[in-house]
Specification:
60% of the residues lie in helices and 0% in strands. It contains 13 helices and no strands. Helix 5 crosses helix 7.
Amino acid sequence: MTPSKISPPDQQERPLLELLEEMRAVVRYGLPVHADHAGPHLLALPAVRSRALDPGDRVSLARALEAALREEVDRLQHELAPAARLLLGSDPSTAGARLTVRRAAAAKASGYELHHFRKRIEPKIWSLLVGQLGRAGDVSAVVAPVLHPAHRPLVLPADVFAWEAVEHQQTLASLWGAVYLLRAELLRTAALVSMDAVEDELVAAAASALWRHALVLHATARYQAAYGQVLLHSAADAGPALGPTQIAASAGWTPELTPAQELLLIEVAAPEASLLDFMTVLACAQGGPRLIATWRWALTGRAPSGTGPDQEEP
């Protein structure tokens, strides 16, 4: 009797198997991702290439892969999410640790015996991470306008259509500018949290990030009021229609707020006002103190003494 042969993976299964094997190598070494440990299939994912400063450079792609992994593992909604962060090394308690240390911490956090975790659960985590990166591929649609050095002053014709075009570009540039300023504050806050900074520094950073977030919401609402939910002049073949809300979301993760809280921030935000003005008005507004406490707690994991997201307002 001729022994049965095992059929090789078909063409649709092969890329997934290769991605899983490459993710296994990334997990083995943990974060940060080094170019030598990043496989070509992971580096070719849209979610990675869209984040790379130079898509033609392997080191730039490896850094983009690390950034994408950190973002997506933070977004992961699964019972294995804490274990995934510990195993990958994005959790501060296992950052920079050897695989054996990270694996033991992840197994303990997920409630599995170490050998069972390594054989059965760890492959599931590779699959979860690959899935997250795959679903994040549409981030490539959110690309800031390309700017070029100017060698002479901008001179506009006395024409109403030129003025309207410039007005649209002003509104769009203001939105992108607000997004990048928010991005900077989110990064600063994350750095301070990782450094276990003192409470005053975290309070100030969270307040600044909230102010910038309010200005992004304000700029988004301004664009929508003037031009609608989709960007003008978007290419028809560029994929899903890109709108101001997608641009706003590209700044990074922010604590989830209710529609009423977002509306309050839009009402309080004023581009010409200062951070102090903003926080003063917000603290005096109905629901403002709770919003501030909820935001600070979610962003930093800390709140001032005697306050918290569940405390009742006076």
